[in-house]
Amino acid sequence: MKTVTFPLFNLNLKISDVAFSIFGIEIYWYAIMIVTAMIVALLVLKMREKYFDISFSDIIDLAIYVIPISIISARTYYIIFSLDDYISNPISMLEFRSGGLAIYGGIIGGILTCYVFCKKRKINFINLLDYIVPSLVIGQAIGRWGNFFNVEAYGTQTNLPWRMGIYEFGEYIEVHPTFLYESICNLILFIILINIKNRKFSGQTVCIYLIGYGFIRMIIEGLRTDSLMLGNIRISQVLSLIILILGITIYFTKIHQKKMSQNLKNCHNAKDKNKK
Fold this sequence. Notes:
Elements: E1 2-6, E2 11-15, E3 18-22, E4 25-28, H1 29-48, H2 56-80, H3 103-121, H4 125-150, E5 164-168, E6 171-175, H5 178-194, H6 204-221, E7 229-230, E8 233-234, H7 235-275
Antiparallel strand pairs: 1-2, 3-4, 5-6, 7-8
């Protein structure tokens, strides 16, 4: 059992990373959170089916491929940037139950799988991404609570009122609950995304996700103590910045192109009226 406190609310919690056992097999809270995230994500997809010309049955077929591939790619990404921890015991790379999944690896694997799936089923790839990103972000919001039960993904020490108290190497410290920051921010981003009913252009929802999540993760990653590193560089922070810039660039390029197209159309209409 691990102890977690929230002084502001006078909470003192005893937390186990194991929820229960079935026939001697331990079921972890982290796994329960991931499964819950997947179920909620699918329910949101079903709810949003009416806004897209993509059948929910196609989504179920896609999920059969995306879920395992995303988990494998999330694990692979984590291992690549934590290789020193596995060189002495390579077989531990296969021990998924011991933890070690990186969300960006999962997203990369998921996007590639979606692209191949769209090619096979002749589905518009960008429309599919617009359809699924709200489900992705609510899944991320829920999944972060797995970090809470594992008492991980927390930040540097702080004396802010909402600080979280934990024991690190037997010493009591009070830290930023970065898992909670990201969960709340992702929930807000989810609310924004599901309220985009009339897209200004195909890919708008994706762009707002890239901008929103890129910004959220870039800031929060700077507070974390367990970032995947390449030398002195926080890999996820750099990737978040790239994603943020990419989202902003694509968004305003598309808006500019749409305005130019509308102006050109108005110009042609004016000429046609003058001829008459």
